[in-house]
Structure formats: C-alpha cells, structure tokens
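Fill in residues.
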C-alpha cells in the first residue's frame, strides 16, 4: 500500500520548492508530496495517482495561474473527488473566487502569500483531522 498524497499546485517553481521543504519537515515523509506547475498538470497527476490507487488527501493550490485559475481547479477536483481537502494559498485571489471555492469546492482554508509556515501546516493538519 502506497503512502497517501498531498498535491501542491503553483506556477512559481520557487513556491513549490518552499512547499516541498516545509511539507517534508512537518510530516517527515509520512505523505507522498506531489507538485504541479499548472492546473492541467495537477489534473494529470491526480489521474495518475488514482490509477495507482494512491489516496490523495489534500490539494494546496495557488489561485492566479495561466490557463485555469485555482478556484476553477479546486471546484473541478471537488466535483470528482469530494473527499479531498482543498486549501488555497495565494496572494492575489479576488473575494468572488474565494467565495466560489468555499461554496463549490468546500474550501477548507484560504491562506495569503507570503504565508507563515505554521499557518499552512496547521491548515493541512486540521483538514486531515476531518477525514
């Protein structure tokens, strides 16, 4: 049985690298951590993980990305996989997008960039407790 997964989606590689370090430190390898630079790549990774029967627990997504915005991504994921905990980590989401994600993607947490490590990890942990 493979480890459950956390997927982070952001079009900035430096943000993904920071998230990778923070997640490894916080969870010490307990979860498989996957990273995508776009919504399209995230959806492909989700399909691959599901095919491999990996349980995806949490999605942490930026909002402002080329192509599909984070709220649209989280809504699409929630429609197909309602059990996945959704977190939006962004510096530029508008209030309407946040409200849409809350109502249509069961958004668990909204965190502003630049984020505090503890705030993000606590949001992920509290989301995991609800599973």
């Amino acid at each position: 049985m493979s480890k459950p997964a956390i997927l982070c989606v952001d079009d900035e590689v430096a943000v993904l690298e920071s998230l990778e370090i923070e997640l490894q430190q916080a969870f010490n390898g307990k979860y498989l951590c996957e990273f995508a630079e776009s919504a399209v790549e995230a959806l492909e990774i989700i399909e691959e993980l599901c095919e491999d029967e990996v349980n995806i627990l949490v999605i942490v997504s930026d909002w402002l990305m080329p192509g599909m915005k984070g709220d649209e991504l989280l809504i699409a994921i929630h429609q197909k996989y309602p059990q996945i905990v959704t977190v939006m980590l962004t510096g530029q989401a508008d209030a309407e997008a946040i409200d849409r994600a809350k109502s249509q993607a069961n958004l668990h947490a909204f965190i502003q960039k630049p984020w505090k490590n503890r705030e993000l990890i606590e949001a992920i942990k509290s989301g995991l407790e609800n599973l």
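The chain has a mean pLDDT of 96.
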